[in-house]
ATP-binding cassette domain-containing protein
Amino acid sequence: MSAPLLSVTGAVKRFGGVQALRGVDFDLRAGEIHALLGENGAGKSTLMNLLSGVYTPDEGTIQIDGRQVALNNPREAQAAGIATIFQELDLVPTLDVAANLFLGRELMRPGGFLDVPAMRSEARKRLEAIELAIDPARLVADLSIGQRQVVAIVKALSYASRVLIMDEPTAALTVAEVERLFDVMRKLAASGVGIVYISHRLEEVPRIAG
Ligand SMILES: Nc1ncnc2c1ncn2[C@@H]1O[C@H](COP(=O)(O)OP(=O)(O)OP(=O)(O)O)[C@@H](O)[C@H]1O
């Protein structure tokens, strides 16, 4: 069998006298939705921060496709193909959906002008790829929380990421939005993305993590 997409081995993280992680091991395979469950204080955020390059482990290794990687900062995690959706979504509410998806990587026309039609058309394609009909010209401020979250996912995945880490993604969603999010997660997994789904809602796990 091929190496897991992501492999964490013996991860230890201490904060002064507090041992937040004591030897965490887990593998994530392509197409898998892996739930990380735990009570408040169990160490879920610490593990997520290790995988997103916010903290470095005191001990242990992280491998991508069987190769050890150092994730010294969020940029290195992104370069390694790990995208994280934090609870505070990384979107600018006063900009439209397309502008958010291309923030910092805008498509330009000759003469140094923004190519708004090209960005909107590409944004529409990416949203439709997960069967989400959101008008790319809408302001993020006018979207529901569930729609914003999907925009954040599409944005995160546009960096060629294959590992998606989601921190309590259902916390602020309605029941219908949770269903829609789970559909999106299943579609992404079917396309080969590996998802780490952090939650303390035990009842959700059998519905989404296999
Ligand atoms: N930056 C930090 N400095 C000191 N202690 C910390 C720090 N971050 C986490 N801890 C401690 O490490 C342990 C694990 O915390 P962590 O936030 O990872 O848990 P969690 O499972 O994510 O909980 P929650 O759902 O409440 O965020 C806790 O005892 C916490 O107090």
Q: What stands out?
A: The radius of gyration is 18 Å. The pocket of adenosine-5'-triphosphate is lined by residues 15, 18, 20, 38, 40-46 (CB under 6 Å).
